[in-house]
Amino acid sequence: MSLSSFSSSHKNSKDLSLHLIFKEAEPDPDNISNGNFNSVVTGISGFPDSYTGSVSYTDNMLTLKPDLNNPIIPRINEFVDSLRPWKKGPITLHSRIIESEWRSDFKFNFIQPRLGNTKGKTILDIGCNNGYYLYRLGLSGQADIIGIDPTLQYYRQYCLLKKIAGIKQISYYLCSHSVIGKIKKAFDLILCMGIIYHCQNPAELLLHCRDSLKKKGRIIIESQGIPGKGNYAIIPEKKYAGANGIWFVPTADCLTALLKRTGYRNIEVFHTHVLTAEEQRTTADSPGKSLPDFLDNNDNSKTIEGYPAPVRIYISAEK
User: Fold this and answer.
1) Which in 7, 83, 155, 234 has the greatest CB count within 10 A?
2) Which residue range is the domain that position 82 belongs to?
3) Quick one: which H or E segment has residue 152?
4) 109-156 pLDDT tens trace
5) Residue 5 lies in a domain
6) How many domains does the chain have?
7) Which tens digits make up the pLDDT trace of 249-285?
8) How is residue 16 annotated by DSSP?
9) Is there a contact between 314 and 109 (Cβ–Cβ < 8 Å)?
10) Partner residues linked to 234 by β-bridges
């Protein structure tokens, strides 16, 4: 039994072979350690995926409205609460507003003018979390949209969204970015949002992404970084801004140099800004510590570890 949400609408043999690579990279559901995958949350697997609801984006809110006959409606609040914390959003499911830790609408709105015409394109979102960007992409036109993420918690959240109002051209695979090294010349566009600084070998990831892009295909990167001019990065000794798993924190110039070194062209840093609590915060649906807890109380230009406080860097490049 597959874990993925591969749509049977992909009939082209080349498309099918691409999806098969991702499908084969997923773990065996019997070997997943944190609970019975099929239950997702108690009872949720008893509800079918639904493609009869509506999906919209207005007033900075991604809204999924189920068909009024959808039997999951009475249990939406229960499932949302069971799936906390929600990192990406905000999202409204029926009448329930999910206030996520990150204002992902800010990020997508920055990159949207750079997407171009996505009709008929093949798009990959690396580290797609609960599928927020997949849904935003799905609203922009008919495309083959693929998301990958190895985190079961985020996949569970996506499963809930899909049972309320799915988008048929979206496929989600429970696997890591290492699978990209097996793929050649397949994607028109890759999104790498909030991922590269978590990679032990960011150059390898960029090389794999370049090889998997079609000719003149593009990558859009959104990364945590540090302010300043010059080609340098912080290599945190342990944590950065309270977070484990941060391997490097570059300047925009450093990230540009890394893209040049890995063979990209037409590189453009199109936006940077200082990260604030307006964008990353503690909420009822993500109740743990967040950015304000990890900045120096006496100097918010520094993290609690003494490093420069984070900025967000947006950069695009072409194969």
Assistant:
1) 155
2) 13-318
3) helix 152-165
4) 999 999 999 999 999 999 999 999 999 999 987 899 999 999 999 999
5) no
6) 1
7) 999 999 999 999 999 999 999 999 999 999 999 999 9
8) H
9) no
10) 249
